[in-house]
Amino acid sequence: GLRQGWEILSSGGTPMDAVELCANVIEVDPDDSSVGYGGLPNALGVVQLDASCMDGRTYAAGGVASLEGIKTPASIARLVMEHTDHVLMVGPGAQQLALDFGYGLEDLMTERSRQSWLRWRERLSETDDYGPPEHLAGRRSGDGLGGLLEGPEDFHYGTTNVLAVAANGDISGITTTSGLSWKVPGRVGDSPIIGAGLYVDNSVGAAGATGRGEDVIKSCASYFIVMRMREGRTPQEACEDAIDMIVDRYRAIGNDFVPGEKFVAINKAGEFGCSSMPSGRNARMTVRHGGGLEIYEGSTRG
Ligand code: ASP
Q: Per residue in 57-77, pLDDT tens?
C-alpha cells in the first residue's frame, strides 16, 4: 500500500488520493482480519466497518460507521466528505450513499473470518447450545464430558491508520477498521470519529489511533496529539503524552487496566512517531519517505 501511495505522491498526486489508495489495498486484502473484507465480524457474525478521512488543508472530513456490505469504507468516508455537507454517516444511510455511487454489496466474510467467529461462538459459554462437536457429544450422552470448553476466543484489535505529507505541505489521513472483534452489534469505535481515531491539520501534522476505541474517544486522543505537536512536542513525544494521559487516568482511580492503545503521528516537517501500551501489540509503524521504506520502532509505555 505504501509503495503505491508513494507513487501517487511522487508523481504530484494529492495526499488524499495517496492515503485512500493505501487504505484500499489493505481493506480488500482477505488475509487481513482487522479491516474491510475479511475483517472479524460482530457478535452476530456481521461485519460492520468504521472509517474516517480528513484533509488538513481545508479541515474537510468524513466518516462512516457500522457500514455493512462494502469492502472499502475509507472510500465511502471520502464520499461523505466530498459529496455531502455532513461529517458522519452510519449504517443503512452510509450504505445507501455507497450504492448511489455505484458500489455493489458484497459478502465481507472470508472462510477464515467465518471460522474464527464460529469458534468464538462455540467457546463463548458452557450454558448455551453452541459448542464444538466433542462438547455437544458429551452433553448428549450424559457422560459428563460437557463443559470441556476452553475460554472464549480472545478479542482481536486492529486498525489501519494512513497519514501522508506531500511535498507542498498538504497533509491528509485515513483511519479504517472492522472494529473490535465480536463487538456488540451497532457498537461504534473511535475510527470514524474525527478527533478520536484521526485528526489532521496542515499547520501542524496528523495523528491516528488504534486499540480500544472507547478510551480513544473519551480522550479525544488524535486531536490531543495534534495539539501537543502544535505546542512544540515531537510526534514521538506527543504520542507518548496521549498514552500517559490515558494510563494516568486509570491509575488515578486505582485501576490497573491498560486498554491497549497505539498512536501514530507525523508533523508537517515529515517527522514521525509511534507509541503503544504493552498489551502484546507492537509499537511499530511502517514509513515511506525519501530515504525508502522503513519499519520504525516507537516506544511502549503504560
Ligand atoms: N480502535 C478500533 C475500535 O475500537 C479497534 C482497533 O483499533 O483495534 O473500533
A: 999 999 999 999 999 999 999
Cβ of 160 below 6 Å from ligand 1: no
This prediction has a pTM of 0.93
User: In a mutational test of the pocket of ligand 1, which residue from 50, 67, 191 has the highest number of ligand atoms less than 8 Å from its CB?
Assistant: 191
Q: Is 159 a catalytic residue?
A: yes
Q: Which of 14, 110, 159, 160 is catalytic?
A: 159
User: Based on C-alpha coordinates, what's the Rg of the chain?
Assistant: 20
Tell me the average pLDDT across 15-33. Answer: 97
Cα 199 vs. chain centroid, distance in angstroms?
13
Q: For the chain, first and last CA: distance in Å? A: 31
Instruction: Tell me which of 88 and 153 has the higher pLDDT.
Output: 88
C-alpha distance from residue 71 to each of 7, 29, 248, 293 (Å): 23, 9, 37, 27
The set of cell numbers assigned to 106 is 458484497
Can you say whether the dihedral through the CA atoms of 56, 60, 66, 71 is positive or negative?
negative
